[in-house]
């Protein structure tokens, strides 16, 4: 017989897995040509949320795994997004106690900084491998992620609270 504590942990793991799955789906969902440069960094935002909410469960290992999955889905150099997401997860876990105390608009600034750091790492890796020269449009996902952060935070927070209440 499974104890209540084990059922709670299993339910939390399921909620985390489903949120990452939805983020991966949103990451590959087709957008109009004009909106493609503004695609938010869904996986990074979900990773930041869970690193701040449950740093003992979601941490650098999750970042690395999600980055590898994004690399496979995008067909990019294996490890490029894994490195970026690992750094994002490390910084989110390191500063989670401070950032959780911030109002949502300040958390949005923290999110845009982390997303831009992740994008800088992927651009750097692309540059090392002879990729294209970066344009200013490559930084737009950071802006859209910052704008969407308060809504994503509220939705994930409510889902997490509902999963705990059952």
Write a structural description.
By secondary structure, this protein is mainly α. The protein has one domain (4-165). Helices cover 73% and strands 0% of the residues. The radius of gyration is 16 Å and the shape is globular.
Question: How do you describe this structure in short?
Answer:
The chain has 166 residues and is mostly helical. It has helices spanning 4-28, 42-53, 60-74, 80-94, 96-99, 104-128, 140-165.
SSE topology sketch:
Blueprint lengths: L3 H25 L13 H12 L6 H15 L5 H15 L1 H4 L4 H25 L11 H26 L1
Helix pairs in contact: 1-2, 1-7, 2-4, 2-7, 3-4, 4-6, 6-7
Structural class: mainly alpha
- Number of helices in the DSSP assignment: 7
Query: Unreliable runs, pLDDT <50, ≥5 residues?
Result: none
What count of structural domains? 1
- Level of helix content? over 70%
Order of helices and strands: HHHHHHH
Per DSSP E runs of 2 or more residues, the count of β-strands stands at 0
The largest β sheet comes out as: none
Shape: globular
Head-to-tail CA distance between termini: 18 Å
On the 0 to 100 scale, the average pLDDT is 92
Output the radius of gyration: 16 Å
Portion of residues in beta strands equals: under 5%
């Amino acid at each position: 017989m499974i104890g209540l504590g084990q059922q709670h942990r299993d339910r939390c793991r399921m909620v985390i897995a489903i949120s990452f799955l939805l983020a991966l789906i949103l990451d590959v969902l087709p957008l109009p040509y004009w909106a493609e440069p503004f695609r938010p960094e869904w996986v990074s935002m979900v990773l930041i949320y869970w690193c701040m909410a449950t740093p003992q469960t979601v941490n650098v290992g999750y970042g690395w795994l999600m980055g590898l999955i994004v690399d496979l889905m995008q067909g990019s150099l294996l490890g490029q997004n894994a490195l970026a997401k690992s750094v994002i997860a490390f910084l989110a876990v390191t500063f989670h106690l401070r950032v959780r105390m911030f109002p949502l608009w300040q958390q949005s600034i923290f999110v845009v900084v982390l997303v831009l750091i992740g994008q800088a790492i992927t651009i750097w890796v692309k540059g090392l491998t002879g990729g294209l020269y970066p344009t200013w449009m490559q930084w737009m996902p950071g802006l859209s992620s910052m704008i969407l952060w308060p809504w994503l935070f509220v939705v994930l927070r409510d889902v997490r609270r509902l999963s705990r209440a059952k």
